């Protein structure tokens, strides 16, 4: 079968395929065409079955990917999606972030305490050894919940006191320095003059200090 005959056969098949009830003629024409070209021919049933299998395979792949994605999201946000774990997860994450921020904040802010940063880091690391040992013994003896409750209570009190001290340190010492300067200014003492022994002597000294003639 040459090219012209093949082309004419294709035109005939297309013409019959557009007419209702002519599927058998189209099938026979395509069969003849494939036999002349020595090519295997699948029937319409085989083609439909193959197409349906491809569609089912594509749908199954899409469903499996969607199922895996939903499972991954569900496992990722299981602490938020589960009502019983929601509050507990919030408390744990809050304590975790707060403890880490306070620990590293104080560790990196040691220069405000007027200490040697290297000595402070060394002593802080050295103190963690007995802290871990005591924590292990307390957990084995009292249990995890009581140990963590006592630990966070002590840490909260200590951090509150330390934060208050850091905030009031400059103010307290600045006021103390001003008071000391005022006392020294009000009660001057030289080698030839002793400090006053009473209110009258102090008033006389103040008059002499603030006098215009002096």
Structure description:
This protein is mostly helical and 214 residues long. The chain is built from eight helices and no strands. The chain has helices at 3-17, 23-36, 44-76, 78-81, 83-108, 117-142, 144-186, 199-210. Helix 6 (117-142) packs antiparallel against helix 7 (144-186). The longest helix has 43 residues, at 144-186. It is elongated, with a radius of gyration of 46 Å. Residues 1-14, 16-20 and 210-214 have low confidence and may be disordered.
* End-to-end CA span: 137 Å
- What is the molecular shape? elongated
> Regarding quaternary structure, how should these chains be classified?
single chain
Please trace the helix and strand order, writing H or E for each element: HHHHHHHH
- Count the beta strands: 0
The helix tally amounts to 8
Contiguous low-pLDDT stretches (5 residues minimum) are: 1-14, 16-20, 210-214
Strand content: under 5%
Give the % helix: over 70%
Q: Please indicate the count of domains.
A: 2
On the 0 to 100 scale, the average pLDDT is 69
What does the main sheet amount to? none
Rounded to the nearest angstrom, the radius of gyration is: 46 Å
The class by helix and strand makeup works out as: mainly alpha
Subcellular location: Membrane
Membrane topology: Multi-pass membrane protein
Transmembrane segments: 76-97, 117-136, 148-166, 172-188
Main location: membrane
